[in-house]
From TrEMBL:
The keyword Nucleus does not apply. The lineage of its organism: Eukaryota, Metazoa, Chordata, Craniata, Vertebrata. Keywords: Hydrolase, Magnesium, Metal-binding. The active site is at 8 (nucleophile), 10 (proton donor). Belongs to the HAD-like hydrolase superfamily. PHOSPHO family. Its cofactor is Mg(2+). SUPFAM superfamilies: HAD-like. This is PHOP2 phosphatase. The keyword Metal-binding applies. It comes from Atrichornis clamosus. Substrate binds at residues 19, 99.
Amino acid sequence: MKFLLVFDFDHTIIDENSDTWIVKCAPERKLPNGLRNSYQPGQWTEYMGRVFVYLGDNGVKEDEMKRTMTTIPFTAGMIDLLGFIGENKELFDCIIVSDSNTVFIDWILKAADFHTVFDEVFTNPAAFSSTGYLTVQHFHAHHCAKCPKNLCKRKVLKEFLDKQLERGVSYTQIVYIGDGGNDLCPVMFLKKSDVVMPRQGYTLEKKISQLAQSLSPVQCSVLVWSSAIDIMSYLKLLIKE
Protein backbone atom coordinates (compact mmCIF):
# COMPACT_ATOMS: atom_id res chain seq x y z
CA MET A 1 0.00 0.00 0.00
CA LYS A 2 1.78 3.07 -1.24
CA PHE A 3 0.55 6.56 -2.08
CA LEU A 4 2.00 8.97 -4.62
CA LEU A 5 2.06 12.64 -3.67
CA VAL A 6 2.55 15.02 -6.59
CA PHE A 7 3.40 18.60 -5.66
CA ASP A 8 3.57 21.76 -7.67
CA PHE A 9 6.21 24.15 -6.27
CA ASP A 10 5.41 27.87 -6.71
CA HIS A 11 2.41 29.02 -4.62
CA THR A 12 2.06 25.43 -3.36
CA ILE A 13 5.20 24.42 -1.45
CA ILE A 14 6.46 28.00 -1.30
CA ASP A 15 4.07 30.90 -0.87
CA GLU A 16 5.47 32.89 -3.80
CA ASN A 17 6.54 32.51 -7.42
CA SER A 18 10.28 31.74 -7.37
CA ASP A 19 10.74 33.26 -10.84
CA THR A 20 9.29 36.63 -9.86
CA TRP A 21 11.00 36.61 -6.44
CA ILE A 22 14.44 36.66 -8.11
CA VAL A 23 13.63 40.20 -9.32
CA LYS A 24 14.52 41.36 -5.77
CA CYS A 25 18.16 40.93 -6.94
CA ALA A 26 17.72 43.41 -9.79
CA PRO A 27 18.84 47.06 -9.52
CA GLU A 28 16.13 48.91 -7.55
CA ARG A 29 14.41 45.51 -7.22
CA LYS A 30 12.63 45.91 -10.54
CA LEU A 31 12.96 45.09 -14.23
CA PRO A 32 12.98 47.67 -17.05
CA ASN A 33 9.56 48.03 -18.73
CA GLY A 34 10.79 46.74 -22.09
CA LEU A 35 11.96 43.50 -20.49
CA ARG A 36 8.86 43.18 -18.32
CA ASN A 37 6.59 43.62 -21.33
CA SER A 38 8.52 41.15 -23.50
CA TYR A 39 6.71 38.10 -22.12
CA GLN A 40 4.59 36.19 -24.64
CA PRO A 41 1.95 33.64 -23.56
CA GLY A 42 3.29 30.10 -23.36
CA GLN A 43 6.91 31.33 -23.50
CA TRP A 44 7.75 31.90 -19.84
CA THR A 45 11.06 30.00 -19.99
CA GLU A 46 12.32 32.26 -22.79
CA TYR A 47 11.23 35.31 -20.81
CA MET A 48 13.09 34.07 -17.70
CA GLY A 49 16.15 33.50 -19.87
CA ARG A 50 16.12 37.23 -20.70
CA VAL A 51 15.63 38.11 -17.01
CA PHE A 52 18.70 36.03 -16.08
CA VAL A 53 20.76 37.75 -18.80
CA TYR A 54 19.70 41.13 -17.41
CA LEU A 55 20.68 40.10 -13.86
CA GLY A 56 24.03 38.78 -15.13
CA ASP A 57 24.67 41.97 -17.11
CA ASN A 58 24.07 43.91 -13.90
CA GLY A 59 26.64 41.90 -12.00
CA VAL A 60 24.23 39.81 -9.91
CA LYS A 61 26.22 36.78 -8.76
CA GLU A 62 25.21 33.25 -7.81
CA ASP A 63 25.68 33.71 -4.05
CA GLU A 64 23.45 36.81 -4.01
CA MET A 65 20.75 34.95 -5.94
CA LYS A 66 20.97 32.02 -3.56
CA ARG A 67 20.71 34.26 -0.48
CA THR A 68 17.60 35.92 -1.95
CA MET A 69 15.90 32.69 -2.98
CA THR A 70 16.33 31.00 0.38
CA THR A 71 14.32 33.79 2.07
CA ILE A 72 11.10 32.75 0.27
CA PRO A 73 8.48 31.72 2.84
CA PHE A 74 6.90 28.28 2.71
CA THR A 75 3.08 28.21 2.54
CA ALA A 76 1.26 28.02 5.89
CA GLY A 77 1.63 24.58 7.47
CA MET A 78 3.97 23.31 4.72
CA ILE A 79 6.96 22.80 7.04
CA ASP A 80 4.81 20.58 9.29
CA LEU A 81 3.43 18.70 6.29
CA LEU A 82 6.85 18.00 4.75
CA GLY A 83 8.13 16.90 8.17
CA PHE A 84 5.19 14.49 8.48
CA ILE A 85 5.79 13.06 4.98
CA GLY A 86 9.49 12.66 5.79
CA GLU A 87 8.60 10.61 8.88
CA ASN A 88 6.29 8.35 6.83
CA LYS A 89 8.38 7.84 3.68
CA GLU A 90 7.66 4.10 3.65
CA LEU A 91 4.03 4.97 2.79
CA PHE A 92 4.54 7.94 0.49
CA ASP A 93 6.45 8.44 -2.72
CA CYS A 94 6.74 12.14 -3.32
CA ILE A 95 7.57 14.08 -6.49
CA ILE A 96 7.62 17.72 -7.59
CA VAL A 97 6.45 18.73 -11.08
CA SER A 98 7.13 22.42 -11.54
CA ASP A 99 7.65 25.14 -14.13
CA SER A 100 10.39 26.67 -11.94
CA ASN A 101 13.96 25.40 -12.42
CA THR A 102 16.40 22.92 -10.89
CA VAL A 103 18.69 25.56 -9.34
CA PHE A 104 15.94 27.44 -7.46
CA ILE A 105 14.16 24.32 -6.18
CA ASP A 106 17.43 22.71 -5.12
CA TRP A 107 18.54 25.80 -3.19
CA ILE A 108 15.22 26.19 -1.40
CA LEU A 109 14.73 22.53 -0.45
CA LYS A 110 18.34 22.05 0.69
CA ALA A 111 18.37 25.25 2.77
CA ALA A 112 15.29 23.97 4.65
CA ASP A 113 16.63 20.38 4.71
CA PHE A 114 13.62 19.00 2.80
CA HIS A 115 15.43 17.62 -0.28
CA THR A 116 15.27 14.04 1.08
CA VAL A 117 11.44 14.18 1.32
CA PHE A 118 11.19 14.16 -2.48
CA ASP A 119 12.06 11.15 -4.63
CA GLU A 120 12.28 13.12 -7.85
CA VAL A 121 11.98 16.71 -9.05
CA PHE A 122 10.77 17.34 -12.61
CA THR A 123 11.44 20.93 -13.63
CA ASN A 124 13.31 23.03 -16.21
CA PRO A 125 17.07 22.29 -16.11
CA ALA A 126 19.14 25.30 -15.06
CA ALA A 127 22.85 25.91 -14.53
CA PHE A 128 25.36 28.72 -14.21
CA SER A 129 27.48 29.33 -17.30
CA SER A 130 31.27 29.78 -17.18
CA THR A 131 30.63 33.56 -17.16
CA GLY A 132 28.39 33.25 -14.08
CA TYR A 133 25.04 33.73 -15.84
CA LEU A 134 22.08 31.51 -14.89
CA THR A 135 20.70 29.71 -17.94
CA VAL A 136 17.46 27.73 -18.13
CA GLN A 137 16.21 25.21 -20.71
CA HIS A 138 12.90 23.59 -21.60
CA PHE A 139 12.11 20.50 -19.54
CA HIS A 140 10.99 18.53 -22.61
CA ALA A 141 9.15 18.71 -25.93
CA HIS A 142 5.51 17.61 -26.12
CA HIS A 143 2.42 17.79 -28.33
CA CYS A 144 -0.15 18.99 -25.80
CA ALA A 145 -2.02 22.05 -27.05
CA LYS A 146 -3.21 22.96 -23.53
CA CYS A 147 0.23 23.37 -21.90
CA PRO A 148 3.13 25.83 -22.18
CA LYS A 149 5.57 24.52 -24.78
CA ASN A 150 8.33 23.71 -22.28
CA LEU A 151 6.31 21.50 -19.93
CA CYS A 152 3.22 19.28 -19.99
CA LYS A 153 2.71 18.01 -16.46
CA ARG A 154 0.37 15.24 -17.62
CA LYS A 155 3.17 13.82 -19.82
CA VAL A 156 5.59 13.95 -16.86
CA LEU A 157 3.14 12.19 -14.55
CA LYS A 158 2.23 9.54 -17.12
CA GLU A 159 5.89 8.77 -17.89
CA PHE A 160 6.74 8.58 -14.18
CA LEU A 161 3.87 6.15 -13.49
CA ASP A 162 4.87 3.99 -16.49
CA LYS A 163 8.46 3.85 -15.25
CA GLN A 164 7.31 2.92 -11.75
CA LEU A 165 5.10 0.14 -13.13
CA GLU A 166 8.12 -1.30 -14.96
CA ARG A 167 9.84 -1.40 -11.57
CA GLY A 168 6.81 -3.16 -10.10
CA VAL A 169 5.53 -0.12 -8.18
CA SER A 170 1.86 0.84 -8.41
CA TYR A 171 -0.03 3.24 -6.17
CA THR A 172 -3.21 2.81 -4.14
CA GLN A 173 -3.96 6.49 -4.73
CA ILE A 174 -2.40 9.57 -6.30
CA VAL A 175 -2.83 12.83 -4.39
CA TYR A 176 -2.12 15.85 -6.61
CA ILE A 177 -1.42 19.11 -4.76
CA GLY A 178 -1.25 22.31 -6.79
CA ASP A 179 -2.61 25.75 -7.54
CA GLY A 180 -2.04 26.79 -11.14
CA GLY A 181 -3.70 26.59 -14.54
CA ASN A 182 -0.95 24.25 -15.79
CA ASP A 183 -1.95 21.73 -13.06
CA LEU A 184 -5.32 21.10 -14.74
CA CYS A 185 -3.91 18.94 -17.55
CA PRO A 186 -2.43 16.26 -15.22
CA VAL A 187 -5.52 16.44 -12.98
CA MET A 188 -7.71 15.50 -15.97
CA PHE A 189 -5.60 12.33 -16.24
CA LEU A 190 -6.32 11.21 -12.63
CA LYS A 191 -8.75 8.36 -11.94
CA LYS A 192 -11.84 8.11 -9.72
CA SER A 193 -9.77 6.64 -6.87
CA ASP A 194 -7.33 9.61 -6.92
CA VAL A 195 -7.59 13.00 -5.26
CA VAL A 196 -6.75 16.51 -6.39
CA MET A 197 -6.10 19.12 -3.71
CA PRO A 198 -6.29 22.59 -5.30
CA ARG A 199 -5.24 25.60 -3.24
CA GLN A 200 -8.21 27.72 -2.23
CA GLY A 201 -8.74 30.88 -4.28
CA TYR A 202 -6.14 30.00 -6.93
CA THR A 203 -6.52 29.25 -10.66
CA LEU A 204 -6.68 25.46 -10.39
CA GLU A 205 -9.62 25.56 -7.97
CA LYS A 206 -11.45 28.03 -10.23
CA LYS A 207 -10.87 25.91 -13.34
CA ILE A 208 -12.06 22.73 -11.61
CA SER A 209 -15.27 24.44 -10.45
CA GLN A 210 -15.86 25.88 -13.95
CA LEU A 211 -15.64 22.32 -15.33
CA ALA A 212 -18.15 21.10 -12.74
CA GLN A 213 -20.54 23.93 -13.68
CA SER A 214 -20.29 23.00 -17.37
CA LEU A 215 -21.12 19.41 -16.38
CA SER A 216 -17.74 17.96 -17.38
CA PRO A 217 -16.22 17.56 -13.90
CA VAL A 218 -12.85 15.96 -13.23
CA GLN A 219 -13.02 12.21 -12.48
CA CYS A 220 -11.04 12.28 -9.24
CA SER A 221 -12.21 13.59 -5.85
CA VAL A 222 -11.59 17.27 -5.11
CA LEU A 223 -10.44 18.49 -1.68
CA VAL A 224 -9.63 22.19 -1.38
CA TRP A 225 -6.86 23.35 1.01
CA SER A 226 -5.88 26.74 2.39
CA SER A 227 -3.17 25.57 4.82
CA ALA A 228 -0.93 22.55 4.35
CA ILE A 229 -2.33 21.35 7.70
CA ASP A 230 -5.52 20.52 5.69
CA ILE A 231 -3.40 18.28 3.46
CA MET A 232 -1.73 16.66 6.46
CA SER A 233 -5.15 15.90 8.05
CA TYR A 234 -6.21 14.13 4.86
CA LEU A 235 -2.97 12.10 4.67
CA LYS A 236 -3.36 11.05 8.31
CA LEU A 237 -6.85 9.74 7.49
CA LEU A 238 -5.45 7.90 4.47
CA ILE A 239 -2.84 5.98 6.42
CA LYS A 240 -5.31 5.16 9.23
CA GLU A 241 -7.55 3.40 6.68
